[in-house]
Amino acid sequence: IPKPVGKYTNDSITLNQDIVFYTNSISGNNEYSFKKGSMINPFEVTVDMYDGYLMKYPYDEYSAYLSLYIVSTAKDSSGNVIMKEIPAVKETNFLTSINGYGVESVKEVEHSSGYTGLLLKLERTYAVKMFARFIMLIFWLITISIIIVMFSIVVRKRKIEFSMFAFLTAMLFALPALRNMQPFIPSIGCLSDYTS
Predict the structure, then answer these.
(1) Among the residues of 88-190, which ranges form H helices?
(2) Of 9, 11, 123, 157, which one's alpha carbon is 20 to 30 angstroms from that of 84?
(3) Are 113 and 88 in contact (CB under 8 A)?
(4) pLDDT tens-digit series, residues 17-45
């Protein structure tokens, strides 16, 4: 939520002049106008994610670029609109609306009097990573138990029982369902499939 400070507010809540925010949103509104005497309401900006590879799930990371240009608008004595650039304070706090992703870091890469360019680094949330690791561990434990059963049959010459085939057949159908339980997992062939 942008918050007015300094000479742009009298009470740290409402604006004492008209202000316009310009963003590089790829959908929706790119211009947000706030009138004198109003509060700056939260607004949503949609940016592209790049420099990432979905098939590295759950360790995929992405970058996003957010540009913000802030100006104040006022009329001079002859009625002409004057636009004055406003510097942005560098304190930032972002939330993502993409489930399973979080903003890892925010770095200011460009800055001029009214323009700010922010580089956002996004990655899977800790909960998604931990659940994916848990599923990978279960896959390994199931695989080891199947190897032990096969070792018991081949090396120890254990009698083959119907329940062994039922167990192996159940695993054949259970593993894909277990794999698809992972949150926000892409199609088959991602990194978690190879590591588990």
Answers:
(1) 126-154, 162-179
(2) 11
(3) no
(4) 888 888 998 887 788 888 888 888 888 88
